[in-house]
Amino acid sequence: MKLVSRFEAASRSTTELLSLLGQAQLAFAAASRGSQERRDALESIRNIENELAMRPPAL
Predict the structure, then answer these.
(1) What is the CA radius of gyration of the chain?
(2) How far is Cα 20 from Cα 45, in angstroms, rounded to an integer?
(3) Max CA pair span of the chain
(4) Distance (Å, rounded) from C-alpha 58 to C-alpha 55?
(5) Contact 4, 28 (CB under 8 A)
(6) What's the helix, strand, coil split of the chain in %, to 5?
(7) How far, in whole angstroms, is CA 19 from its chain's centroid?
């Protein structure tokens, strides 16, 4: 999985972010320990979760 940057996360809708979050979690679980893919997936998860936390809750 390619890294989802903070800038990219900010430009996505909440629905898209939730989908990307699931993909990043799967990529993290599938990647080998210590690999660049795993580090990218983890950083993507952090960026997505930070962006979601900054948004107002949906009604």
Answers:
(1) 11
(2) 8
(3) 39
(4) 9
(5) no
(6) 70, 0, 30
(7) 9
CA distance 39 to 33: 9
CB 35 within 8 A of CB 15: no
Q: Which domain holds residue 49?
A: 6-54
pLDDT in tens, 2-53: 999 999 999 999 999 999 999 999 999 999 999 999 999 999 999 999 999 9
| Distance from C-alpha of 10 to C-alpha of 32, rounded to nearest angstrom | 28
Indicate whether this model's pTM tops 0.90.
yes
Task: For residue 23, give the amino acid letter.
Answer: Q
The number of folded domains in the chain is 1
Query: What is the DSSP track for 6-28?
Result: HHHHHTS-HHHHHHHHHHHHHHH
Decide: helix, strand or coil at residue 41. helix
